[in-house]
Amino acid sequence: MTTETPSPTSASTAPSADAFAERLFTAALATVETMSIYLGDRLGWYTALVEHGPLTVDELADRTGTSLRYAREWLEMQAAYSILDADLSADPIRFGISPGVAEVLTDTNSLAYLGALPRMNAAAFAKLPELLDAYRTGGGVSWEELGVDARESQAALNRPWFDRELAPALAKVEHLHERLSHPGAVIADIGFGGGYSTIALAKAYPEARFVGLDVDQASVEMARRNAAAAGVDGRVRFVLADGAEAAASGPFDAAFAFECIHDMPRPVEVLAAARAALAPGATMVVMDEAVSDEFAGPADDLDKLMYGFSLFVCLPDGMSSPPSVATGTVMRPSTLRSYATEAGFGRVDVLPIEDFAFFRFYELIPD
Q1: Tens digit of each residue's pLDDT (9 = 90 or more) over 208-263
Q2: Among 89, 245, 292, 317, which is 20 to 30 Å from 1 by CA?
């Protein structure tokens, strides 16, 4: 991924009409490609190819219980985009998937997994009429309205990082690791989504107990199922509650908020409640997008992606519950620091956790 920030656009570097038309055409191809991956993900076509391929059109349709004609069009389109391989020497033609492509699209344990990413686009595209209305009126579209595609996309994309990297990352922060390892420690996970962050923490710190708080009932139910499947439900409790109600579940020896503060309509209230619920000497850890420090016009790919998520998902979600501070996905470090200060925290440090997907870890320290 590109990380260097481009130079600001000037009149001499601005694209010509032909150049921008070519760029938009390329973007249209990428949009179609992304949504075709959504089809392959949701219809089980990629999984069938991984488990049973190479397959003919008839075999893929039969194994997945899907339309033969649509399966043919999709397979040919995937080969045209060089996502799948087509053996033209076979009669009938057989389609296969290479190991690298299979890992990215189907291996939910891989740090390279992105197969669920198009679900977030699909969730937003399905709500375009509502989003247009929100843009005109200043309203919003809530996480609940965005539905299962958005909910499962975020949970699935973060899961391998939580499963494989969260415990090692926290173990490198000695004072935090010691506190989490204390027998009988009670840890909060605010805005837990699919619950994979809480589950990873519970596996890493078996002598602690965990309380998850989330405002989305469907997420609570999903997290409870995931905790039971992971065998940690005896030490993990997921409850339907606003983060502002954290104090009622405390005191906590540590509190976490993974990729959710920027979605909250009233983050200062949540942070203040979390601070009030912390036991003496405890701190709060916020994981959020590692965007650049300030707006500077042309941006790197990470900021571009986050602006996309903000425009279609996070900002409308945050604005769906007025009054809202309307943060959006591109939450600069200075913005979080201002929220933390207003909530009564005395200091915000960036933890020495690097190369953790798209994220930065902050430690919020009370006075």
Answers
A1: 999 999 999 999 999 999 999 999 999 999 999 866 666 567 799 999 999 999 99
A2: 317
- Rg of the chain in Å (alpha carbons): 22
- Looking at the chain, how many residues does it have? 367
Q: What is the CATH number of the domain that holds 47?
A: 1.10.10.10
User: Does residue 186 belong to any structural domain of this protein?
Assistant: yes
pLDDT digits (tens, 9 = 90+) for 263-278: 999 999 999 999 999 9
| Among 189, 200, 194, CA closest to 258 | 189
One domain for residues 157 and 73: no
Q: Which residues contact 204 (CB under 8 A, 6 or more apart)?
A: 166, 167, 170, 171, 180
* Arithmetic mean of pLDDT over the chain: 94
351 in Cβ contact with 285 (< 8 Å)? yes
pLDDT value of residue 5: 54
Has residue 298 got a pLDDT over 60?
A: yes
